Amino acid sequence: MEVETITKETIKVEGMSCGHCEMRVKKAVEAVEGVRKAEVNLQKKQVVIEYEEGKENLEKVKAAIREAGYEPV
Ligand SMILES: [Cu+2]
C-alpha cells in the first residue's frame, strides 16, 4: 500500500487586489490534482496549500495560478 505524504507550502502571489482575485486563485489552485486545501491571504499576498508531495504538483499549482491571471513568485 502506498503512503501519501501531505506537504504544506506557501506560495507568494502577485497581482491579487480584491476578494474576487482571492476566490479565483483559491478555485484555480484547488482544482489542481493532488491539492487538498488552499488558503489564500490577500493582505499577505500568498496562498498556503496542502498537497500530496511531489515537485510536479507544485509546478502544476504555479501553472494554474498563472493561467488564472496572477503571478506566483
Ligand atoms: Cu480582484
TrEMBL record:
CDD domains: HMA. Keywords: Copper, Metal-binding. SUPFAM superfamilies: HMA, heavy metal-associated domain. InterPro entries: Heavy-metal-associated_CS (IPR017969), HMA_Cu_ion-bd (IPR006122), HMA_dom (IPR006121), HMA_dom_sf (IPR036163), MerP/CopZ (IPR001802). It comes from the Archaea. Residues 7-73 form the HMA domain. Pfam families: HMA (PF00403). This is Copper ion binding protein.
